[in-house]
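Course assignment 3, question 2. Fill in each field.
Student: A.L.
Task: Predict the tertiary structure for the chain below.
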Amino acid sequence: MTLVALRRSQELCEFCPKMCRFACPVSEAEGREALTPWGKVSLAALTTAPGCAPDASSALAFAGCTGCYRCAVYCAHDNDVPSTLYAARAAAVRAGVAPEAWRELPRRFSTRGHGEDPDLSAVHRTLVGAGGALLFPGCDALALGGEEAREALFAADAMGAPLGVVPDGALCCGLKLREGGHPELHEAHSARVRALFPRRKPLHLVFLQPACARSVQQWPLPEGSKVEHITSYLARALSSMRSRPAPLPGSAVFHDPCALARGLQELTAPRALLAAALQDGVREPPRSGVDTSCCGAGGLLPRTLPEVAAKLAAERRAELGEPAVTSSPACAAALAATEVVSIVSRWLSQGASEG
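Answer field:
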C-alpha cells in the first residue's frame, strides 16, 4: 500500500460514522471501542504520523485484527483496514514495541524458512505427487502433520486430475511476515520462494490455506500462471468425473473461511463438493457466504491475543453446531472442524474400495 493510499484509507475511517463497527469480530467479542475498525485505524493515524511513534498498548490494538475483511463488506468505500493495520504493525516493529510473536518471526524464517515450531521440511518430504498443477500445502497444514495435503493428493488423483507438489523449499508463502509487521522480509521471502520455480514457465499453484492463495495471487508470477484454492481445483475435476461413488450418509454445516469467501470470492466449489460427497448435503449457519463470521485464526491473533482468538472460535463453534466442516487448515484447527478435502477423500476412498 502506497503512502498516499494509506493516508486515504486512514482518513476514510477517521471521519466515518462507524457503520461497520458491528462487523469486526474482535471488537464484538471484546466490546471495546478502541478495537472497532474506526478505533484501530484512528489510533494508527495518530501514532504513525510524522514525529510520532506507537507504544506497546497501541501495538496490541493493531494486533486486534484477523484480516477477515468483514468490515469491508459493510464499508461504502471498501476500505482496506487490514492493510492499514499491517502498516501500523510495521511501525510498531520499527519503534521496538511490537509483541514478541511479531519480533520472533524474522529469526524463525531465517533459520527454518517458516514461522512454525515443527520441522515442516520433514513433513513436506512425505508428500508424493505427480501432475502439472502443484499443491502448495503451506505452513498451517504442514504444522498439523500434513494429513490434509495427503488427502488432497489422493482426492485429486482419484478424480483424474493428479497434483504434483511444490519444491521442498516452498514451505510457506510468507504471509505471516506481512501480518507481523515485516513487509520487506515478506517481499524477500516471496522472492526466494519464487526462485525455486522456473522463471518463465507459467505456474499452476493450488493451496490448502485460502489466505495463502489470496496472498500469492499478488506475486509477479510468469504470464499465464494460475493460483487457486484446493476446493476450486477439485470442484472442476468433479464436474468431469464420468462416474461417482454413492454419497456418504449424513450432512454437515459449512463454515466459509473469511479468505475463501471474501478474499477469493469462492462460495460454490466447497458446497458442490459437499453436495456430491454427502447424502444430505450442506446446511448453512446463520452467517455464511460473504457475511461469514470469523473463526479467529487469522492475522496472527492466536499468537498475540490468544484469549480473544479462543473467544472468537468458541462463539463460532456455538453458532455452527455439529458436525462442522470448513476448507482452511487454520479454521479447521480453531473450530475442531472437519476439512472438505477430508470428506471428499473419504468419499472417494469408499468408491475405490467398492470398485
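Instructor remarks: The CA atoms of residues 23 and 71 lie 5 Å apart. Residues 81-95 form the longest helix (15 residues).
Grade: pending
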